[in-house]
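[stage:ingest] chain + small molecule (arginine)
[stage:ingest] validated
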Amino acid sequence: MSTTKPQRINVEFVSAYPSRPLRGEDAYAAIIGDVLARMAATLGHEVTREYYVNDAGAQADALARGVYARCLAPTEFEADEITALAAAVRKGLSKDLFEAVEADWLPAVRRAAVEAAMASIREGLTALDVQFDTFTHESSLETRGELFRLFSDFARKDALMDSSGNLINAAPEKPVERLMLDTVSRGDLRPRPLTDGDGRYTYYAADLAYHSDKLARGYDLLIDVFRKDHSSYAPGLIAGVDLMSAGKAKLSVCLIDPVRPALAEEPSPRAPAVQGLPSLEELLAYYGARLLRRLFLTHAPGEPLELACCTEIRTALLDADKLCASALALPISDVDAQSLETPLTEAAFNARNPHMLMKSANELAAQFIKAGKITPKGTAALSQLLATLGLAQ
Ligand SMILES: NC(=[NH2+])NCCC[C@H](N)C(=O)O
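[stage:predict] done
[stage:export] tokens:
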């Protein structure tokens, strides 16, 4: 089945902050990441599906503080997803902790809050029928030692700069303020800060340490599925990986279009023009995981995806689903038809565009329905496409 040299591929996707529930864009990223991983596996590659849990920075601290406040005075807050987390966290922590100073309770509350939040994120992903092999926690990475090693390597490669943009030939023993990485020589538009004004490592620096960890695990290709708001961040990461891997492995970034609420059909002058975006829960309740998957895969990348719970969309998705099922149930004819499964999967994988596969699956099904019969190769091609899309009948 494989037409390319088998490679070890890591697909990182979703990686939403534990500090908020999953949104439409996360669900979209989940489906695209899942299908990219399926395509790679179909082509014979060895694939790891990974989620990066950002549990170490300011967002995680803010989550811990919100949860802590609700643990102390549960009745003072309106019920929301943070109160739900607080209820779970409160049960597992000792009472004394709630009398301690922040430095004492913060790490424990943060750990428990992240765990409870990730449990609910995992539930959402399972409901979407998307599995992961690995969850890597930012807090578990030995960032400090690893970054010193990386910075020394950058200095040797003439890529480490001080705050005035001058190259420095050795990494400082202790982190100093405004160290920069010269990523411009690797195709980036501007150098990237490695430490901030207080000498603390940036999110980008920690992300480099994380990608260095992925490289050490021996992958030939790293794929990051990011939301489009990462579009100016991504080139810095790509250049950083290029520097770290010395050309041995490559990072490729797939950007997910924003997901917006659909415009109301007849916006009234009084009502707001847009309805709120339905939550993942509502979307799943309305469409079910299968039609929701079809909906994301039907969207051609490039424009924001407008999402709504709408009878017309639901009917169209259901019809497309039935079309494929009916095509596969047609009488088998022995007329030979060309099989397009592998070259197409390869093209779609190289373009990081599962939409191409979706379109072809629909077209193929319509073609066979029109002919009133299906060839053995047609059955194989259509089944293979649907399996790769996670839509096997
Ligand atoms: N290695 C990465 N930077 N992964 C993406 C992380 C995304 C980040 N947690 C967010 O929700 O915006």
